[in-house]
Structure formats: C-alpha cells, structure tokens
Design goal:
Length: 73
C-alpha cells in the first residue's frame, strides 16, 4: 500500500453482470472505475480504482460508493 496507487475492489457479492456493474458504478455511485474484465476473464466482478489523487477525492468516491451499495441492500 505504501508504493501503489491502484486498488482492486471486489463487487462479486452484488450479483451484477459486467455491464450492470459498470452502469451501477457510473449512474448510481457516480464514479468511474476501470472494469476488471478489461484485464482478463478473471477480473469479472472486480473494478480497479486509481487512488493517486487528493485524499478528499478518494473519500468522496468511497462515500458515493457506500451510499449506492446501501441502496441495493
């Protein structure tokens, strides 16, 4: 964690297919992440987040994501 700026997030428990996950992240969470399937079949259900930005930006994205996931529950 001290030397990286990429985080892999596991969304498999949400039960969304790749396109539904992309739509959920963009529309409901209002964040843009790199879909895991871009990096191979094993990446399906994951998304890559770049955290090489101000902490406030990362926190805002995580807050949006948490609120969006809460709506699904």
């Amino acid at each position: 964690p001290e030397g990286t700026f990429l985080v892999w997030l596991d969304f498999r428990d949400l039960g969304l297919d790749a396109k539904a996950l992309e739509k959920f992240l963009a529309q409901r969470a209002q964040i843009a992440l790199a879909p895991g399937y871009w990096f191979g079949r094993e990446g399906a259900g994951f998304a890559r987040m770049t955290i090489g930005c101000p902490r406030k930006t990362v926190q805002s994205a995580l807050d949006n994501l948490a609120a969006a996931v809460k709506v699904l529950s």
